[in-house]
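Collaborator request, handled under Task 6.
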Amino acid sequence: MLPSDPVEEFETQGRIARVYHHGREPIKVVVLDNYLTDPDAMVDLAVQGPDFAPNGPFYPGIRAPVPPSSFQTLLGPLAEILPRCFDYSGRAGLRECNFSLVTTPSDQLQPIQRLPHFDSLEYGRVAALLYLGQGDRQGGTAFYRQRSTGFESVDAGRFAAFEAALHADVAHHGLPDAAYIDETSPIYELIGRHEARFNRMIVYLSSSLHCAHIPKDFAFDPNPATGRLTVNAFLGMD
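Structure tokens returned to the collaborator:
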């Protein structure tokens, strides 16, 4: 399922922002192509910067911190997006910012990595994801609905019901196969997907149920110069 037509388009700092709505709630996703004026410089930072390493049990790959000197270049263009599309007022605070590479083959995924997830229960927290990988087999990011509850996002008020439903669903259907999730899950329903494209930024609330879309013929490349390099930034309302 590819995104439908955007519900809104507008210009911001010389870029065209396209706003999509997915599902029933709906889940809002803002897409900006040609995001950085010099994306190759950001790739060079990943290649020459700190070593990549595993970062906890949830992300199916390796990460390295983005240098603080690059934060304004990365996040400055979101100045109009956050208040207009995500109701930010005042200053946005950076919670985390990393380079990321998907490197875990399907048969090595932990059960939690085979399911959609949300990033945070923090109210208003936003994920900004910049694709910096080259080639046409980079996958993308997909958004989902939990079939048994109808939830497309999880906040503090929904968490207990979401978790209980997930345990019940796994007990009934079993753990998912050792593979990256696609549109065929008995527990989750695909509601939208955005393809990775070099220098494309997508922005969405961290409470949205989502997962990396990884094609079956994906090359699990740990080299930031040639692999599925992304920048993952998280912002909150300060």
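The cover message to the collaborator said: "The first helix runs from residue 39 to 48. Helices lie at 39-48, 71-75, 81-86, 159-173. Please let us know whether this matches your experimental observations."
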